[in-house]
Amino acid sequence: MLRQLNSVITLTDAAADRIKFLLEKCNDPKIKTLRIGIKEGGCAGMTYTLDYATAAEKLDEIINDKGVTVLIEPKAVMYLLGTEMDYKVEKLGSGFIFNNPNEESACGCGESVNIKPVEHIN
Question: Which of 33, 37, 57, 93 places its Cα 20 to 30 Å from the Cα of 15?
Answer without folding.
Answer: 57
